[in-house]
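Quick board copy: two proteins, each given as sequence then tokens.
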Amino acid sequence: MIQTIQRIAGNFKRHERLLVIPKELKKLTRKHVGRENIVLEPLRRNTAPAICLAAMTLRKRHGNGVMHVMPADHLIRPRKTFLSALKYGQELAENGYLVTYGIRPTRPETGYGYIRLGRKLGTLRHNVSYGGAGFTEKPNKATAKRYVRSKRYLWNSGIFTFSIETMLEEIRHFVPAVHKGVERFLARGKKRDFQNVPDISIDYGVMEKSNRLCVVQGNFEWDDVGSWLALERYFSKDQKKNILIGDARGIAIEDSIMCSRDIPLRAYDVEGLIIVVSNEGVLVCKKERAQDIKKLLK
């Protein structure tokens, strides 16, 4: 999250930035980001309600304008190239598009969503835009390999740009229960109002249905490090394909990720596991189910 804020800090002032976070992360977020503007979700309801909540809050404070949505767990570089893409996205959003940023796949990743490219719309300073011709959420391995070979699919980065009014209009049209529920929550401030809001992503709820979709191909390096498996792209493995971080080791362990900073972590005869030990708790998960840890958090 800190890197995400630093990435845009020179171009967006503090009063223009808004962090939407689950209520239980308030203390931790304040500890790391200080005086940033925060809006609390009383409970997790996926990205469509979170974006709707942010859009309505920003509209109340600033009126209509262009809004950029950025998950807090991405690695992006170089910063200048990323900001150039955002600037192009802003111009497209001012013309009524819902802009998403696509990344050229480097591997047949099954943990990401994919966007199929439609006709070319335009170019600005090495940034190219296309009409969006469809989404596929987390395909199987064979399908992902076909997408990479075709050159017509990009990873869906989860970064979006749109005008506030355009997005709220599309939410009202495609997922009216989200619009109505968030509106009621902001008016009354009662948790039960938010509890009745559908749990749905912005991809499923709006982007897959809207005819306003536009894709800017990102020329920047991008990685979603929201999964423990991302460590395999940044840490060296030992001879048994393990990644051991901190005070973690064992005997007869293979193809596993083990991480412990302060507490000794020892394992015997395990394979294909993620084991994380911290002062806050312990996590044990099969590597093949790493993408499903969100279900555990719920």
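And the next:
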Amino acid sequence: MDAREAREFRRVKILGCGSAYYAGQLGAQFIEEVARMPADAEPASEFRYRNPVIEKDTLYVAVSQSGETFDTLVAVQELKRKGGRVVGLVNVVGSSIARECDGGIYLHAGPEVAVASTKALTNMGVAFALLGIHLGRIRDLSPADGRRLVEGLQRLPEQIETVLKDEERLASIAQRLASAENLFYIGRTRGYPVAREGAQKLKEISYRHAEAYQASELKHGPLALISPEVPTVAIVPDDELVERNIGALHEIAARSGPLYVVTHPQVDLGEVQAEVITVPRNETELDPLLMMIPLQLLAYHASRALGHDVDKPRNLAKSVTVE
């Protein structure tokens, strides 16, 4: 898309399944924040069943690691039938979704063998950031902010290496999480898709029941389930909502819920008793990409601790090509 064509779009709709859907939620948050365009994500598996209204001023983005995910492919075909403009965000070059779309972004993450998406998921987040910066720069994003975000992206590889150096400690934490039958993952705004992805990973490969909720929604029902037997993994970035997130931690601690907090080094949790997992600080809009990494490691080591096959979890396939 050239700049004139891209300016004609007024909103962005992202479609994906599983982890690709959660990456889409991260992407929608980033695009709305940086490009100041309404953006949201929806499971592709539900999209075609509700006879969606397709708008000519909406840019549709289909996300898939394999490019063969059947539900996402059929959603793309439905969009094309109704005259929608759809681009793909796909890892496998020449895959079905890539061929069906009007254009798109190849992730070039390399082959991903395990069923649970890891490096492809991180690359989806980076690709959404690039798309958001592109859409923002043809609107109101300043050159200084554009450079700030690009420099943040360039820092990511080194910062991910820093997170990986803490793997031994994360493995010991994962052993404790693996002993719990039920877990909560919570986050707010940018942190909520991170929490959803963390819960998804744990479910996929350790077979533990993990539920993700917005931190603000805890008091509207799920707080009833908090107990010493139900650990909570909380995503607490150092952003404008840090005090509210710490308030939610107090509510959990008051009910004797064990807390594991993924946060930044400069965040002070005060009197909250928690196992703290720190990640390096990047730009606020990009912090979710780093906060996903320790959650992937926790799921991996929890699965190992329980003696499961990490690469080939039961009942799942790498490329879901059936309805």
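Board note added afterward: The chain has two domains: 3-141, 163-305.
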